[in-house]
UniProtKB/TrEMBL annotation, chain A:
Its main location: cytoplasm. One of its GO terms (biological process) is rRNA (guanine-N7)-methylation. This is Multifunctional methyltransferase subunit trm112. InterPro entries: Trm112, Trm112-like. Belongs to the TRM112 family. One of its GO terms (cellular component) is nucleus. The keyword Electron transport does not apply. It comes from Extremus antarcticus. It comes from the Eukaryota. GO terms for molecular function: protein heterodimerization activity.
Amino acid sequence: MKLLTLNFLTCARKTCKSTAAAFPLHPKDAELEQIEIDMNPLFVKNMLPRLEWEAMKTLTQELGLPALPAETPAPEELTTEDGEASQVLKDLHVLLMETSVASGKLVCGNCGHEYAVKEGIANFLLPSHMV
Amino acid sequence: MSRPEDTLPPDLFYNDVESRKYTTSSRIRSIQASMTNRALELLDLQHSSFILDVGCGSGLSGEILTNTEEVDGGPHTWVGMDISSSMLSQALERDVEGDMLLADIGQGVPFRPGSFDAAISISAIQWLCNAESTSEEDAPDRRLKRFFDGLYASLKRGGKAVCQFYPKNAAQRSMISSAAIKAGFGAGILEDDPETKNVKLYLVLTVGGGDITG
Ligand SMILES: [Zn+2]
């Protein structure tokens, strides 16, 4: 599961729906993997304003990854003066699109429920009484 | 032929054997591809988008989203949800690029508000009309409500969803579309090849209040 996706995923329980603590989910015993994919500068640029940067910072910190800048990078930081992909864009691509949680758990900060991740797939099936 | 929806719940129906059959049958693959392309045409996406694939199965539609050419507004990045772990295993074997959740769409859509540009669903949402158990929480109307409320919230303002589906009858068709409308969607049903045995229904859903930045 890409770190991009983790920036949008919340706890599935109804009781957690509108509580701030249910996002972001917290990785536990997470194994990371890097999966190379083609860079899509326009997509990254389009997603940038939709990212919750604070959650991104929390996630990278919890995963032991290098610290992110304090604020969401500005769109103009994504290209160099020659119109090429900047280092900021390349770093964002690696972080959001190529870094994945291969296995481990995702824990809700509100209810404590642990969602298992295996082979990159998170199990969000809830027993009926928890829906 | 009996409808799979009438025999078993989807996680049991799409076991390893059925999942492989579904994924490798060239007839099913080509029908699935044409419905996905039709749904994409109806979504009319102008640029690389973040898309939710509801009932993504083995990623047949997802591959098309990944491989959409730049001139056609792609390539897209997708996240899939499916209740069948066998189907998702097939997707893993085929090395699809999207992320996937093992999840029951009748339990809701676990993404924060405004996550996706669009959603697509091929041959999945009629399964919501099956009661998963005798519990009141699992009744079709509750499942439909959780799904459409969740889908509505997970799409950005001005977002769109296209769901190709196979309702069992007129009652199911209107149950599904009225649940979507109740969730807040603008909804319409498009029929391709009406009055034939190849009729295909697309529920086209829009979230009002489009923003300027798209
Ligand atoms: Zn929770």
